[in-house]
Amino acid sequence: MQNFCKYWLINPAICSVMLLSGTAAFAGEIPATTEINQPLEIANTNPEFDHATQQRAMSQVTSVSQFSDVQPTDWAFQALQSLVERYGCIAGYPNGTYRGNRALTRYEFAAGLNACLDRVNELIATATAELVRKEDLAALQRLQEEFSAELATLRGRVDALEARTSELEANQFSTTTKLQGQVVAVISDVLGGDRVNGTEIEDKNTTLGVRARVEFVTSFTGQDTLFTRIQANNIVSPDIGTPEGNLFFAGTEGNTNAFIDALWYRFPLGEKTQVIAIANAGAADDVTSTVNLFDGDGAFGALSTFGTRNPIYGQVAGAGLGINHQFSDSLALSLAYLSPTSNDPSAKNGLFDGAYSALAQLTVKPSDRITVGLTYINSYNQPLLTGSNTATFQNLADLQGLDEAAFSSNSYGIQASIGLSDKIVLGGWAGYTNSRNLTGVRGDVDIWNYAVTLGFPDLGKKGNLAGIIAGMEPKVTSSSVAGLDEDRDTSYHVEAFYQYKLSDNITITPGIIWLTSPDHNDDNEDVVIGALRTTFSF
Length: 538
Fold this sequence. Notes:
By secondary structure, this protein is α+β, with helices and mostly antiparallel strands. The protein has eleven helices and 22 strands. A hairpin with a 2-residue loop joins strand 4 (195-196) and strand 5 (199-200). Helix 4 packs across helix 6 (134-146).
């Protein structure tokens, strides 16, 4: 069929052959045994019709090649309109209308002509040629001659597109999987501060570290997502004697091997519910919104762990199940249960007998500019990842003279983001954690944290982001656990960064983190950490 159509389009003379052939009545009966590869013979069914006279009349019409556009009053326009009405070869615009009363460019006209040629070819090829009038064939022949250059250009463009499409299909990674990657290169150093808790800061050398990720995003139905991420990371956060100021994108010191860092499968359950099954390295942002403009998972936005999201979210990690139900455009409920010991069958481990976190969050979005998250997290043996040494339970077992410690926590958080304008976003959060020590001398610990953020999207250039974060990292405000004293002073975390979009695939983010009275101890000198992050995406 394709070969036949190409032959028909390339050889306008076929119209003349069909018009001048005269062994069978075109409008009469066609033998039932006629095959599409047999020549179609056409007879003059109207004895009054004088083909030569018609050709002379048509030759007196000014050639349409002399006009820049084809007007509704041109013979070519009227001829094509007649063909459209008779054979239905142009269905219309995407909205179902055919605007046949406006001028067309020669290429628009050629596209319509090509559609009518295809329709006539189809009728001939399906042995229904008796439906095609010979007058129409004559008009088609003339139109082909007048628009031969435009038709040739269109065919060339179509052939080029088909060739490019074939090349893309032949070289595509997968029909169901998208391959994407990201490299984060970071130069960092401690720029100020010498001693914390009586110990000199030794990690004061300028370092260069890299986090590389390769991600496979697969969809089997178009509505589900299988996400697999392979990561290698040798970035080390400077050891300043306290977990405060930790860099979010830092890896595990001493482990630079590539491994499956994340693996999860998300699928719909009805129209408003999404379910996510997490096999490895799940985090809070996999199951709910952290309601922070600066949460870019270390590659974008904030540089520090504290500045990326409310620290109570740090307890949510491991493998498990999450559910998100969208009640409406302005209200959603997220539930999740994750365990970092899910693959360990030994005693006091596994999915339900070891460390875990259970999250429930109600996300309210009363307008496009305002989002509020109300969060509750219940966890077991899941410490906070940033804050003072006491707030993160550093060496809790040693403080009590035990081989291991166990504790449970209940955390409550509120997060908000308010777009004051297209260029200014005000945000922040407050988090409270009550932890109970379950080994040794039992007792309770109260931990608070809060922050205010100010973001400037598209500052200086579309795609840029400037940010300021000011707040208090997790601090123990009350403790009845033996050996775990409350933090006596208050440390403030001030962070500023400017994320510059160098191109669609490269961003550069210089930033600085200033910690006053580190570890919530006024005896400690202020510490300043500087970082320059470059993110490559592909």
